[in-house]
Amino acid sequence: MDFTPLPQHLSNNIDNTRYSLEYLAIIMDNKSFDDTLRDFCTKFYLSIEESESDYFTASGNDFTIEAKFVSSSLNPSTSVLLKVFTDVEYDLQTAKELLEEQAIGTIFMELVLLRDSIGERRNQEAYILLNEIENMLRKLIALRTACLSGNTWWNDRADTHLTDKRYLRRRHDEINDLEITGRDDQKHHEIFYIDFSSLKIIIQEENNWKDVFAHDFKVLRNLDRLEFLKKLRNKIAHNRFLSQRNFDELRQIHSHIVHMCRRAFGEI
User: Fold this and answer.
1) What is the 3-state secondary structure (H, E, C) of the chain?
2) Bridge partners of 86?
3) What are the two backbone dihedrals, phi and then psi, of residue 176, each rounded to the nearest 5 degrees?
4) Residue range 19-32, pLDDT digits in tens
5) Check whether domain 8-106 has CATH 3.30.310, yes or no
6) How would you class 262 by CB atoms within 10 Å of its CB: exposed for 0-12, middle for 13-18, buried for 19 or more?
7) What is the pLDDT of residues 237-253, one digit of tens each?
8) pTM exceeding the 0.85 threshold for the entire prediction
9) In the chain, where are the structural domains located?
10) Which one of 17, 136, 196, 223 is CB 3.0 to 4.6 Å from 261, fit for a cystine?
């Protein structure tokens, strides 16, 4: 399966020619900014290009760095904004592993990852895949259960099996907030306020499963992975970077579920 292409407005914001990391780096006690960065260059075989009291650049065969001393008028600072750049995607991952394994505790007291350009791109692509999975499952549930229960499909086949009713409060708050939902805006159905866990509950409910969904979910592992998708969705929602392993598994699940749903839609 190929990567799902990003919308043009997102693709235009991604610099595909250079990759970068940004860290908050905390200098070790009794070390200066300049001494710390010189030690860093020695450890990672970088050549110093520019060295000032609050700014430092250096380059090596695989990556370059830019460091800015983060000063404060209130207290003496030990903080540095450290940026790492590579021209090759693989080299960025290598640089990340090197820094986090060898620089913490020796060069810097702490390194906190603030930005990962590859992680940002991965999250954008993952969001599109999760969105397609979630909305295809909503469509499948609506169509399958409406075929059985008509206009009572939501009450009889879905809501009655959901013990967690907080989604109703979320819907109420959103549709009554004129900043979010104007008078002429679309008022979404309740099914758009439930998450992967609730979708799973509806699908695996005994009667729903027996009457329709057992036929669709012939490989039960697809259903079991909805909890995993919920965790990935939460991770992305809070702007934490997915690992490549997470992303590869998401692509595989996406392929299975989308294929299953399209097959089911063809039967309806």
Assistant:
1) CCCCCCCHHHHCCCCCCCEEEEEEEEECCCCCHHHHHHHHHHHCCCEEEEECCCEEEEECCCCEEEEEEECCCCCCCCEEEEEEEECCHHHHHHHHHHHHHHCECCCEEEEEEEEEHHHHHHHHHHHHHHHHHHHHHHHHHHHHHHHHHHHHHHHHHCHHHCCCCHHHHHHHHHHCCCCCCCCCCCCCCHHHHCCHHHHHHHHHCHHHHHHHHHHHCCCCHHHHCHHHHHHHHHHHHCCCCCCHHHHHHHHHHHHHHHHHHHHHHHHC
2) 19
3) -100, 5
4) 999 999 999 988 99
5) yes
6) exposed
7) 999 999 999 999 999 99
8) no
9) 8-106, 120-267
10) 136
Which residues contact residue 231 at a Cβ distance below 8 angstroms, ignoring those fewer than 6 apart?
none
Structure tokens at 116: 């990962």
